[in-house]
Each structure stands twice: as C-alpha cells, then as structure tokens.
Amino acid sequence: MPLQFIGKNRLALVILLCVAMLVLLGALQFVWTGQLSEAQEAMMQDALTNSVRQFEQEAERALLFLLALMRPEGRGGQQLDWNRFAEGYALWAETSAHAGLLSRILVHQAGPDGDAKLQEVPLGEAEPVAADWGPQLKSVERGLAQAAGRLSRGRGPVTWTLFPEASAVVRPIVTLDRLRRGGPRGPRSGGSAFIIVVLDWNYVAQEMLPGLVDRLFSGADGERLYEVAIAVRDGESFLYRSDPSLDSAWLAGADVRRRLRLFRSPPERPGPPTGGPDVIRRLALEAGRDERAGDPGGAGQQGGLRPPQGGRGRIAIAGADAGMDVELAAAHISGSFAGAVARQRARNLGAGLGVLLLLAGAMALVVVSERRATRLAAMQMEFIAGVSHELRTPLSVICSVGENLADGIVSSAEGAKRYGQLIFSQGRRLDEMVEQTLQFASLESGKRQYKLARIDPEMAVQRAVDQARPMIEQAGFALERGTAPGLPRVRADENALQQILANLISNAVKYGDPGRWIRIEADAGESDGAPEVRIRVCDRGRGIPKGEEGRVFDAFYRGTAAGEGNIQGSGLGLKLARDLAQGMGAKLSMQTDPGRGSVFTLHLPALVDAEA
Questions:
Q1: Most buried of the four, 267, 470, 533, 558, by CB within 10 Å?
Q2: Could you give the CA distance from residue 57 to residue 258 in angstroms, rounded to a whole number?
C-alpha cells in the first residue's frame, strides 16, 4: 500500500520535498546572513576605532614633534642660542608632513625690574626681530605677566601650555646651569623667558585635518566611508566637520566618540564672525571673558598657567577653557555602520531570496511543463485514436463499396452512381483529415509560407460558400448571406483565407444543431483606429459551455459537445484557423452564448485607397 501510494503521488511528494528544501535554505540563509552581519559590524567597529585612535596619535605626534624641536634652553642670563631656533625649524620643514602647522616663533623676556620685550624669530633665520603682541596674543601676554613672577620664584610649571584662543603653545626657557645645580627654575638674573609657538589653525582646518580624514577614513578605492567631526561641549561648536550639515543630533548618534587631549576650543564670542572659516574664527578669539564664571577678565580664571590635570595629556591648558571637553566623532557616511550593515544584509537576503524565487519559479515551470506535456501526450493519443477511427470509417466504406463493385453486385447504372458518390464523399473526408494534419505539422514547424496579395473579401466569401454549399445542403442547414456593399480590399493569403472560412463553416455545420442555420456576413469597421474587414460565421447551435471558451483553440481539443453528439473531427479546425489568421496578419475572435449559438469573426486589415 505505501509503495502504491508513493507511485500514485510521486509528483506531489517531489514538489513537497522541493518546497521543504527551499524553506530550509531560506531559513539557513537568514541565520547565516545575520551571523555574517554581526561579524561585519564588529569588524567595522574595530576598524573605525583603530582609525580614530590613529588619527589622534598622528595629530598628537605632529604637534609634539614640533614642540620637541622648539625647546632651546638658555645658556645663562638672558642669552639665548638663536641658532637653535633656525636649526629646529629647518629640521621640522624637512621631516614633517605638516610643515604648514607652524606659523610664528616668538620669545618673551622679562627682567627683574619688570622691563619686558617680545622678539620674533623669522622662520628659517637665526636673527630675532622686535615684535608686538597684537590682538590674537593678548591672552598670552596677560598669562605670561602673571606667570613670570611665579616662574622666577621656582613655582611655575616647566611645561608646554596651550592657549586655545590664541592658537599658541607657550613654555618657559630654563637655564641649563641652574637646572644642574638644582636652583630655581629661572634665569640667573631673576628674570624670565618664554618661547611662544604660534600654530596656523587655518592650515590645520583646511589641510592637516582633511588630509588625515581622507587617508584614515576612506576605503581602499579612496571613497569616503565615514563622516568625521571634532566637537566641543557635545556639539555646541565644532573645530572641524567633514560635512557642514553635521550637527549635535548627528554627534549623538555617531558610531565612535573619543575625547581628544590636544584640540580644545575657546568660548564663543558674541557678535558677527570675522574672517576665515568657522574653525579659524573660533580659535582666533581674544581672551577677555569667562562665560562660565561670568568674569569678564579675571586673572585667576583666564590668565595663569595651569599645571596638567589628571588624564589630560602632556600639555597644560590655559585660559577659561582649560576644562572643556573636545572629542572626535565618526559615523558611517550612510548614517551609521549598523544601518549600513543592516542594508547590506537586506541586499544579501534580497539577492538570496531572488535566487530562491528563481528556483521556485523553475520548479513551477518544470511542474507546469510536465503537466502540459502529460496533457499534450494524452491529447495526442486521443488524436491518434480519433484519427485512426476517422480514417478507419471511410476506408472501410471505400473498401466495402470497391469489393461490391468488384464482385458485380451492383449491376444498374443508378446503383453504380450511388456507389461512386459514396466513394467520392468518403475520399473527400479522408482528404480533409490528411490536409488538416499536414497543415498542422507545417504550422508547428514554422515552414508555412504566406503569399500576401490584394483580395476582394466579397469574392473570397462567395468562393468559400460555393465550395461548402454541398456540405451545407446535405446537412439540411439553411444558409443566409449578408455582405455590405463596397467593401475595401484586404491583404491576405488567398489559400489561407479559403482554408480559414472552410474550417469555420465546417465547424458551424458540425455544431449547428439544433438550429440548423448558418449566416455568413461581411462588413467594414475599425479596430484601434485601423480600418478592417470583418467576416462572421454565425450559427444557432449548442454554443460553447462555460470553462471551455479558452480551450477551443487548443490543438486536439474537443469539447463535451463533440463527445455527447458523437461529432466527427480531429480537434484541429479552430486551431488551424487561428494560426493561419495570425500568420497572415489577421485575427480570429469568438463570441458564444451556451444553448443559443456562436459567432466566429475573422478580422482582416483593410487596404486604404493608396495601397489599393
């Protein structure tokens, strides 16, 4: 029993197994793509974190290398080795990838009597020139005025101090002999000296930072993968943005945020901005007020040198902004790499689903093709059986009549005439079946050639009626004609047109019971704006039952009426008529009313006057 069940339902079991395999593959793909996406997101997170860390290290390395070269110590008193400045700058210009970072080198010296002077060492030269503080360096001037006394008493920090609002880094110059003897950290005369390195933040904003971002946050093909910003106070202001549209909302959703030690921003200055890009306006502000303490210039808040605080790196921060947090943030260019990974997963799932759907479609096509092949094979077997039966009947009649004639059973002229008519009718029946079979084979092979010519449709209809009249009269049908006058000529193959009309008239005679009435009419009209001639073959027979309208034009198909009425035929008449019509550029349509009859209409393209 199980084997019999499997044998009868083998196709259904195969389909069920294939569907189960597709579902399993879909589930595995969903799980595997999820695991792959998680691993990809973790890799992107690590890569981005490393890029942010490398960005900070390279920026810090560039600044610390510059400051290391700008540490010439005094050799006693106020005497300085100015050649060391020139040597340090020369080495910096030759070896650094960011030579434009350095803008000016200044030295401030103050004597014990309060006499102070500011000198500038032109880049690349060893001879100092007199300089003045200018608006940008006012905060440095105030800070050094307070720090000088503490440094002379050995209480000031010997370290680099960043003045963000002045874009300057300051360090006291310590005499070597006093350091060796362990004395106070100041000049022997009791004065003080400071080196001031002024940075070019315009270069930082327009060259250095964009270069680092392009190199560290791009793919192998050079395409930017991440947006980067350096923000102050959670997005209140930005030192750098790779895209002007980045704001605090973007900062809150960034993929990576890391606090920086070397980049700090001064407070906002009210009033319209003046000169340069946003980063330059922010870093070139004058010192003079503390927004947080409300002190418009308190020495304790903004002027003094402050020692490095815990966790803030190797450079002290001076001014009112010593406690500000500056952080580097990066996010995937599409919004976040979590979203990018999700979109990539969706694309992978879509591609995989597409492949599975193609497989499912291929399986469905195989099943449909198999069923169609099975149905076609059954119809072919039915056709062979029907044709064999149809051939056997006329052949049997012809053989019987021939045998009677040969045996001399028929002796009268009237009997011989009747036998001759019987042989002729059966021979015509054989010829019709053979001709339909040959035409079907020719159409299916694509070898049928059409000879299109200008044809008078009224004459074509008359010729078809004349040829079919004996069959119509023998069947006892009433024939009506209804041809409109002045029909335009049509372009058609004459033999194909006669074959189509003959098949339609023969079909109307076969299925015309019980009305036994046929009407053939022709008129002119239009279809989609194009002129045409319509030839209709109407009957008052049984019509075509619901559900069979779409199959009557199939090869070898014979409806229920053919079986119930024992109607002879091969199931090729309407199939040949439709294919012949399409082959010569015409169209065959059908209207049916079950129990009341059918109308088959041949639509032929009409020739306009110029073509005619």
A1: 533
A2: 12
* Residue located via tokens 């098949």: 503
The CATH architecture one would assign to domain 449-612 is 2-Layer Sandwich (3.30)
Name the β-bridge partners of 576: none
Q: Max Cα separation, the chain?
A: 166
Name the 3-class secondary structure at 563: helix
What six digits make up the tokens of 180? 């060796």
- Kindly tell me if the per-residue pLDDT of 301 is higher than 70: no
pLDDT at 383: 65
How many Å apart are CA 139 and CA 163, to the nearest integer? 8
Smallest Cα–Cα separation from 205: which of 290, 267, 275? 275
Encode pLDDT of 48-92 as tens digits.
Answer: 888 888 888 888 888 888 888 887 664 444 467 788 888 888 888
Q: How confident is the model at residue 316 (pLDDT cuts 50, 70, 90)?
A: low
Q: Say if residue 312's pLDDT is above 60.
A: no
Are the beta carbons of 606 and 558 closer than 8 angstroms?
A: no
Give the number of other CB atoms < 10 A from CB of residue 605: 19
Using an 8 Å Cβ cutoff, are 327 and 230 in contact? Answer: yes
- Domain ranges for the chain, please list them: 70-335, 449-612
Mean pLDDT of 361-366: 80
Q: At 561, is the pLDDT very low, low, confident or very high (cuts 50, 70, 90)?
A: low
Q: Which residue type sits at 224?
A: R
**Kind of pairing between the strands at 161-163 and 316-317:** parallel
Query: What is the enclosing helix (H) or strand (E) of 87?
Result: helix 82-95
Decide: residue 497, CB within 10 A, 0-12 exposed, 13-18 middle, 19+ buried: buried
DSSP output for 534-552? EEEEEEEE----TT-TTTT
What pLDDT score does 385 carry?
67
Residue 338, both tokens = 């979590």
Residue type, 13: L
178: which 2 tokens? 């006093």
Cis-peptide into 273, omega within 30 deg? no
Unique residue bearing structure tokens 């008129």:
523
On whether the CB atoms of residues 124 and 90 are closer than 8 A, the answer is: yes
Q: What does the pLDDT look like over 97-108, one tens digit per residue?
A: 888 888 899 998
Residues 6+ apart with CB under 8 A from 331: 226, 227, 250, 253, 254, 255, 256, 337
Kindly tell me if the per-residue pLDDT of 298 is higher than 50. Answer: no
Residues 260, 230 contacting (CB under 8 angstroms): yes
Question: What is the C-alpha separation between 505 and 519, in angstroms, rounded?
Answer: 9
pLDDT above 60 for 612:
no
What's the predicted TM-score (pTM) here?
0.47
- For residue 388, the tally of other CB atoms under 10 A from its CB is 10
Q: State mean pLDDT over 381-406.
A: 73
